[in-house]
Every structure is written in structure tokens, then in C-alpha cells.
Amino acid sequence: MKKLLLGNEAIARGAYEAGVKVSAAYPGTPSTEISETIAKYNEVYAEWAPNEKVAAEVAIGASISGVRSMCCMKHVGLNVAADPLFTCSYTGVGGGLVAVVADDPGLYSSQNEQDTRLIGRAAMIPVIEPSDSAEAKEYMKRAFELSEKYDTPIILRTTTRLSHSQGVVELEYRTEVEDKPYEKRIDKYVMMPGMAKKRHLYVEDRLKRMAADLSKDPLNRIEYGDRKVGFITSGIAYQYVKEAMPEASVLKLGLLNPLPDDIIREFAENVETIYVFEELEPLVEEHVRAMGINVIGKEIFTRQGEYSANLLRKAVLGKSDAEPPMAGLPARPPVLCPGCPHRSVFSVMKKLKLHVIGDIGCYTLGAVAPISVIETTICMGSSISTLHGVEKAKGKDYIKNWVCVIGDSTFLHTGVNSLINSAYNGSTGTVVILDNRTTGMTGHQEHAATGKNLKGEPAPAIDLTELCHAIGVKRVTTVNSFDREELAEVLKKETQTEELSVVICKAPCALLKGQVFPNKVFVDGEKCIGCGACITCGCPALSKDGKKAKVNPEMCNGCGLCASFCKFGALEKREVVKK
Amino acid sequence: MSTNIMIVGVGGQGTLLTSRILGGIAIEKGYDVKLSEVHGMAQRGGSVVTFVRYGECVREPIVEEGQADVLIAFERLEAARYHHFLKPGGVMIVNDIVIEPITVISGQATYPTDVLGSLEGKYKIVKVDANKIAAEVGNQRVFNTVVLGVAARHMDVEKEIWLKVIEATVPPKTVEINKKAFLTGLGE
């Protein structure tokens, strides 16, 4: 049967058909839908882990026990999972093990543009990369075979455009793969120096064997056309080459680490001018140059952002006949939703003129106008330790007008380790957990404090207050995110108190399903003087109609935050739906 | 040759659903098809773009400047923002409503007046107030299916195929109202 599948759905389907039994992941755009898809198959155990390191270790455990397993993450998640994966490269596998890693060229939803292929090379883990949904499914199946054949974890690398594009995929049946018997083998699975030294030799030999064996494998193929011009390319960039210059010769690489020298050399011998067309870093380009082959690459193609057929046409053919965009149009950046509890919390912090150390989540949008509260964002879980660092550098008086904010899911990801550090090392800072009962930005995934698991089944829910107490934080206060007066009082007190404190701001994400919003805000035209104070709350449901405030009733969730900004009582929250 | 359709709007307006219906249409017609979507942070009220391409063999999943046969815009400013993706003489279906971006709301920019005026003559521009029509049909949320109905007037696909794919794609509880919205947009 043929079906339109997202790249991510195709990856999940490939894993399913390959007989995968265990999958673990932490959500992260653009990788999230892989886990959401695989969770629908009853034959697969799938879970949300608190972070990517845990997910990778779960997959490693399953693999050692003899079953096919996988873990999924976005590119920056691979940094978190790097520790187990770098050593798993040495141990190799029992059952096939695939780490799916989704890069984000163009930074659609990320904090950097790092290239997973480089990490694969550093970890000496083979990397394969498909170029559309159909290949994504096929390569996933291939990845499990290669993993078992060469006793190695495999990274299947994808990018946002591939993960979030749909293409036609032929569905096949699942093949049940017999579990490999578990073997107690300390030479392979206990990485003490003596054993690891030997495994390092094995790893180097493995890469050499793979480069030689797989050079003529269907993963890599030459499509000869015009032999005057050729492209070495891979992944989604291959599609851009075929679109822009269908007559050119192409070496399409599916194996990106180790790079298959034999087929590269063959291509170079048969094609006059060779371009290397790869998004992000010049990994292939540098390798090919090191082989003594002249190519054209990053001197005309950028290291930044996404590629396209037009980008190639402009760089290679000098063609650029498209109409320019209309100048001077107002930008439309993403914003916190109407009724978002984060906006309410930020409005209090702004009023108190606090410095706010941020983290990764929807609340990062609190950095931009008109909210303009967040001052730093580095990585998942970084806010608490960053605030601790500021305090240790500048002293406890210095941070009496500072707080850090972190979401509930992000707190459980890696923020909790930082809180342990803050408690252990005598921080006096104020940590605000923005507890909206979900993983918001990636599209509402469950986590260890929501009471449900990835399959939607009931699960134990961590009590964040108890967790903080257990870590050693004595001052833990829970406030309704929309109770601005109480929150202001609590924040004033906690930032002044010379003791570590946690303030849990609790209110569900406005987009969480199953909620009823009984209220809407109405404008009293008589009372409104058009001062625009309400607008500064930054809600997209509010605007000015001529000289008066206007509420878009379709968007308004009736949280009433804007009304609290009005000194004239011109905005009023009224019940429109009977509870 | 492929048919290239671009759907633009504001995050939350349902561009994904519309592109998935169009993808289903292409499959029904036996074409190769690729769709490109936006997920994650960009969905939160930002400017969003989805692409649908179908034909004998589709390579890249995105539509680029000067290549779209049809631009479906769920909001006026977004129609202007992406007009240059249309081929000269292409069809622009505009849900002629205004949703002010935060940059306008907060006073950093102004919403341009008559933003589509300069494009008259360059493209075949069809304006519709789909939100109003959808409200008359019974639910403002199906405005995107009204717009799709208007777009369908400019596409060579049988009505029965549209209705079959809509039925298979939208949430089961909303099948009837979506069909009604589509037919109203189609002019029936």
C-alpha cells in the first residue's frame, strides 16, 4: 500500500518493519513525530525519557539484551546523549541499535546549527542519510542490518526539511527478528581501560572495513549524465541538485561516515568539474580534498541555513530571475499564545524589573518585544546553573534582582541536576519553574510529572515540590501563574531572602486539550482612552482599532491579563460560556 | 512538470490540514507528490508556509520564488509577503482578513493599507472573506475549507475526489461541516 508519510513517520515505519522492539526519546523539533508515530505500534515498547542521555542508555540496554532498539533526538539532544553513544561506539551492539538524529539547518526551532555528521565522525559511529521519505524508511531498515553486521550503533541523520516533508512511501509488513541471546562479555561491554584499548582497535578496523565494503553498496550511487559537471551530495541536498541540474552527473552518498573512498575516486576520474553540495559543514568536501581531488564547495555554497534548488542555480549558473519580495512589510515572528500562563508570569517579572535567565521552551519567546524579559538562553536545563554561576562570580547581593525560569519538562530534562548543584553549593538564588503541565513547544508531549506516558497510559507523576525538598531546597512555593499579586509578593520576598528558593508557577498551557475557557475580555469604549497600556502585555488577541483597544474574540481565551494592565477599568473579563 | 501550490498563513490557522488535503488529492489522481510542513516554535502565531508539489516525478519538496501555480493565503499580509513565489499570471487566493502581527500590535510597524493593490494585473487575484462565509456555514473554524473550495475552482480536479479526500482527512466529527464549507467555497 502506498501512503504519504512525513520523513519522521517513514523513519518510524522503517523501524517498525525492521522489527524494532524498544524506542526511547525526549521530544525535540524536528524529531518529535518519530516517537509519536512509533508509539502507535503495539509491537514496540516506546517511551519518553527525561532526556536524550537516558533515552540512549535505554536503547543501549535493550540492544545489549539482544533486541533491536532505537533512540531519537534533535541535533542538540545528541550532545546530551554523546557520553553513552561515544562509548557504545566501542562496545558495539547486541541487537541492532540506531540513533536517529535530526539536524536543523536554518534554525527553524533550535539554538544552533551544528552538524551531526561531525559528531558521528568524532564518535566513530557510522552515519547514514536518506534523501526523502521512501529512502528514510528503507535506510532505517538498512541501519539495523548494518548495525548487527558491523557490531556498531548507527546514526541515521535527518534534517528539518526531510523530517517535515511528506512523500510517497510503499508500506511493507513487519519482519519479526529473533532476539540475539544475551552474552556476558566483559571484554565487549565493560569499558575499563584494558578492554577499551582493544575495542578502540576494533572500532578503527570496523570503519576501514565499512568504507571498503560499502563503497559499492546501493547506499552510495553514481548517476552519470553530463560528464563535464558533477555533484557529490547527500540527503535532501540531492533533491535540490536533481531539481536544478537534472542533466548533471551525481554521486549520491548515503554513507557519510566513514566516507566511501573508492566510489568517490571513481566519480572523480570520470567527471571534469566537481561540486560538493552539502548543507552545513564541509565534511565531505574536506575529505575529498584530502584525497587530492579538486572540488568546488564552500567557496560558493554557504555553511549557513537551508539549501534549495534556487540557491544552487544562483551559485553555479548565476541565474536569478525571480521577482523580489515586497519591501517594508511588517515581520510576523512567533508569539506566546493568547491565554499563555508564561505571559502573566513575565508581566510580573517585568514590573519588578528583574533580570531573567531563560531556558529552552516556548517561554524563550519572552526575550522579544514587547515582553522583553528573558536575557539569556543557552541550552536545555542551563538556566539554574547559569544563575548559580552569576551568583558565585558576583556575590549574593548582586542577584537579589535576578531569577531564572525553566519549564516543567525542561526542569526534569537536565534542570534537576543544576538544582542539586545549587543546593549543594549554597546558592541563594530564586528558581522559577514555569509548570504548564506539558512539553509545550514541541507540541504537548507527556513527561514524568504529567501522570501519563508516551502511549497515553496512566503513569506515576513526580511531585515537583517534593522533589525540590528532597534535593534540599527548603523554600518551595506554588503560585497560580495568573495570580499576579501573589506572584509579585512571593518573588519580592524570595529574591531578597538569602536562601535558595523555588517558585512553581502553575497553570496549564493554553493549547492543552480538554480545557474550557469560559471567559472573554470585552472593551468598554466609553472608558477606553486609547493609551495602549493593555497592548504592552504582548497578547496577539489585542490590537487597537483606531483609538480604542480591540479584542479579537476568536483568539481571546479570557485570561484577563490585559484587563489588569488597564488603569481605567476599560477591559472587563466576562463569562460567556456557562461552566 | 509539476503543479506547485503554496499555502501561507498565521500559525494556528490550519495550513497543515489544507496541505494534507491537497496531498491526498494528488495521491487520488495517481501523481507523485511531496509536501513540506512547518512544526515547532514557528507555529506559535508566526508566519507559516507549507508547500504541495505533484506531478510525474517530484524532486525537491519546497516551492521556490517564481514557481507557484497557486498561492493560497489565509491572511492578507501573508499573501503580500509571499507573492513573489507565484509564477507570473499565477492564481492568488486570498482570505481577505487582517490579523495584525505582534510587531504591528506593539507599535513597531504599521499594517500596510491596500497591500495587494500593486499586485493587480500581475496575478489572477481572488479575494474572499472566508471567515464570514464559514460563520454563515455554521463554524468559523472551517474557513480554510471555504478557501480550499475557492481554490478548487481554479484546479482541474473532480468534485467527487475533493469530497472523498476531505472526508478521509478532516476529523470525523467535522466531515459534514467541512464538506458544506468546501461546496460553498466552490460556489455550489
Describe the structure.
The complex is a heterodimer of chains A (579) and B (188). Chain A has 579 residues and is α/β, with parallel strands linked by helices. The mean pLDDT of chain A is 96. The two termini of chain A are 46 Å apart. Chain A contains 19 helices and 23 strands. The longest helix of chain A has 21 residues, at 193-213. In chain A, helix 10 packs across helix 13 (309-317) and helix 15 (382-394) packs parallel to helix 16 (408-424). Chain A is globular. With 188 residues, chain B is an alpha/beta fold. Chain B has one domain (2-186): Pyruvate-ferredoxin oxidoreductase, PFOR, domain III (Pyruvate-ferredoxin Oxidoreductase, domain 3, 3-Layer(aba) Sandwich). Chain B contains seven helices and six strands. Chain B has helices at residues 15-28, 76-81, 102-105, 130-137, 143-152, 159-169, 175-186, and strands at 2-10, 32-36, 47-55, 68-73, 86-95, 124-128. Classes of the chains: A alpha/beta (579), B alpha/beta (188). The interface between A and B is large, with 59 and 57 residues. Strand 8 of chain A pairs antiparallel with strand 2 (32-36) of chain B.
Summarize the structure.
The complex is a heterodimer of chains A (579) and B (188). Chain A is an alpha/beta fold and 579 residues long. Chain A is built from 19 helices and 23 strands.
Enumerate how many helices of chain B there are, as a single number. Answer: 7
Tell me the strand order in the biggest sheet of chain B: 2-3-1-4-5-6
Spatial order of the strands forming the largest sheet of chain A? 3-2-4-5-7-6-12
How many E-type strands of chain B?
6
